[in-house]
Amino acid sequence: MIVLKSHEEIELMAKAASVTAAMLEEIPNILMPGMTTLELDHWCEDYILRHGMKPAFKGYGGFPGTACISVNEEVVHGIPTKRRVLNEGDIVSVDLGTIYKGFYSDAARTYPVGKVSEEAQKLMDVAEGSFFEGLKFCKKGHRLGDVSHAIQTYVEANGFSVIRDYVGHGVGRELHEDPQIPNYGKANHGPQLVPGMVIAVEPMIAAGEYDVEVLSNGWTAVTLDRSWAAHYENTIVITEDEPRLLTKL
Ligand code: MG
Predict the structure, then answer these.
(1) Superfamily of domain 7-245 in the CATH hierarchy
(2) Does the predicted TM-score (pTM) go above 0.85?
(3) Cβ 222 vs Cβ 213: under 8 Å
């Protein structure tokens, strides 16, 4: 069941999301080679707490971190650890959210660590670009399949693949609500988009094949072929006209 949000609820979500948005903008300023993913996670947790919010992921399903921090061939759900040092040339995906008065925000970005290869930069650019292709259809009168199809078409036209095993979702009083939003699919299929829907659209793409496996820690998903992956996500409100991006400044 898709739960529509009232104006008041959307403003609470916007407040939660404003901290997520500002934090994601700040990360490039503190990210540097030599940092561990645990140090990055602690910085995120401190940022959220300092701004009067709660981290949305910490403890969710037993997840130990504030952020899912996934490096290179890791697609999503990377566990922050002091053993993983970020090196020059790596790409690092940071997926996190905040809770304010019971409402969630959810967003992700992939960042370069120092100078990265042209291929890695293109992978990040296409992940971000595919989100904005999907966003064009996040409007009243379109269906979810239009969003999925636009993302897939753009990613594949750029020579990359769309991860199948992880999808976007509704967001609100729960981190993961209906509907599921695959990053591949058929135009003119799926639920209609209506004002008051709040959704997290989150393309995850790989430079190689889209198959993934989960590592023995039970969380971290990596590409089966160990090609690199990138992730880009925002929390979006469907309105009477243009979509409202809550997690982007
Ligand atoms: Mg999400």
Answers:
(1) Creatinase/methionine aminopeptidase superfamily (3.90.230.10)
(2) yes
(3) yes
